[in-house]
Amino acid sequence: MKKKWITMMGIALLSTALLSACGSKGNSVKLATGGNTGTYYSFGTAVGQILGSKAGVSFNIQSTGASKANIQLIDAKEVDMAIVQNDVMDYAYNGTDLFAADGAVKGFSAMAAVYAEVVQIVADPASGIETIADLKGKNVSVGDAGSGVEFNAKQILEAYGITFNDINKQNLSFAASADAFKDAKIDAFFCTAGAPTTAIMDLVTSKDIKILGVDEATADKLISAHPFYTAYDIPAGTYKGVDEDIRTVAVKATFIVSNELSEDLVYKLTKALFENKDAIASAHAKGKELDPQYAVDGISIPFHKGAEKYFKEIGILK
For this UniProt entry, which residues form the secretion signal (predicted)? Predict the structure, then answer.
């Protein structure tokens, strides 16, 4: 991937130098996140501030086009570290699905999964949809074309014996999906994001919704076929009108790092991430989900040697 092409993507590099408290020149890490109004950016900024002071590293936080763009930026050596969905990093590493046309990218490794990005399937109760199987023949938004959400939708529908040809597929963003749902232009939509998420929170202020569950047997089949998924329960009360726990599946927001970063640096960053999780949780709500066991489960690509060293040291990996 050429740097010129990356520049043409229109990625806004909103950079803030977050210097370590000790003032050391030390290492400098460019961290790619997501849009500057999204969770990746705010979480990455919070983590960068804390790891910068604790690990003696200068962080440069960059606002980007999220998962796929972040992997391409690492491949182009434009950044050193990024936040991505663990399913998208699997596609990149293996050259499948979202990266089938581009080919495999091998210049990065996993550092740690940090929080759940939940596959939320929102349906209109007035449409007669009770289960995922009922989506057949309905107007369904599956996320932006070529997005990770679209592949989540494809895989989950296939687990129920449904293809995109069996639905009236629309490719809409989360906000556009919510607007179309309000106007009764679609019957359901897929949204992969932290729960609760803004698009759905805004929607339930004016519209009744039903969250469709993924039954246990199908979830097990899906996880077996695609090991980057994990089972996840959306707690009752997460959204207005959703009064019972909903079992679904989730992918994971994950820190990845360039293979060119040293083992010592990645070890220090991983260690600082978990030894300062209370401080990170105080700075950002998603920090409450930091957990070493969660960090390694469902990760289908190799860990960087520095991260692996830390997880072995605390007994999480053998």
Answer: 1-20
